[in-house]
Amino acid sequence: MAKRDSKTDWRYGRRVKAPGLQSIMGYILPHRTDCEVYLHDTLDITDVMAFLDERNASHPEFKSTIFHALLFSIARMLKERPKMNRYIQGYVMYERDLVSLSFVVKRQFQDNAEEALMVLVPKDTDTITDMSRTIHEFVTKTRKSEHATGGIDEIIDKIAALPRPILSVFLGFIRHIDFWGHNFSVLTDGDPNYSSVLASNLGSIGGPSVYHHLNNYGTNSIMVTLGTIYEDEVRMPDGTKQLRKLVDIGATLDERIADGFYFIRSLKLVKYMFSHPELFETPLSEPSGFDYK
Questions:
Q1: Which tens digit of pLDDT belongs to each residue from 86-122?
Q2: Which of 37, 253, 284, 290 is least buried, going by the fewest C-beta atoms within 10 A?
Q3: 14-281 maps to which CATH number?
């Protein structure tokens, strides 16, 4: 079974002492789906789009997208706001040392096409260029095959092929040991349900930033969706109106990991990143300079 080694394993974290209210909530509301908080906001991406256009002209082989920018912003937020990288499992709160971002890749843009799962663990030295290169390499490799070629995707396919009675008993056992934090590493390696943030780029298929539920399985406490880019008039700080490029985002969070004040400040940091595109060229280890006052 899996061992907790927060220094090398992105799936798990170290146990932390939670305030009294949060500790009690873990017992009163033991299921993650009972504790969902949904946030919805709009990002002004006009300046970031201009920055990405200029950056992509120099790196046409692996272009950066708004989705990449969002992932990079979330990664920096998690590094500066460690409580956002927490989860509750077996009534106990844990905090990860490593940031992990995950999302689903459609192998083909067709109704019946299979999906692949990616978990990205950014390095402290990464900039958006490094992150885009890693994502591009994974997506390119994935779309060369219409079917799973190994890893968690292939394991899931094999488990799903079990007879229904055996599958029911097996998954019941897995859910039990998962609740207590003792799931098998062969099932958790590469599983987005164990990542810091699970993101979905619905804008890539023309969709809105919908509400997406959390899962009781795994350790993931934050789900983020990105919608379709559009233009609208925005009132600027000087009182004038300008036509700006915007995108909606939605975030579902486990309210037990922090309070609303901490959540809103974390969202403001993500928005700060989009108003300061130069931060996408600085390594994640460098502070954003955001004023939390």
A1: 999 989 899 998 999 999 876 555 555 567 788 999 9
A2: 37
A3: 3.30.559.10
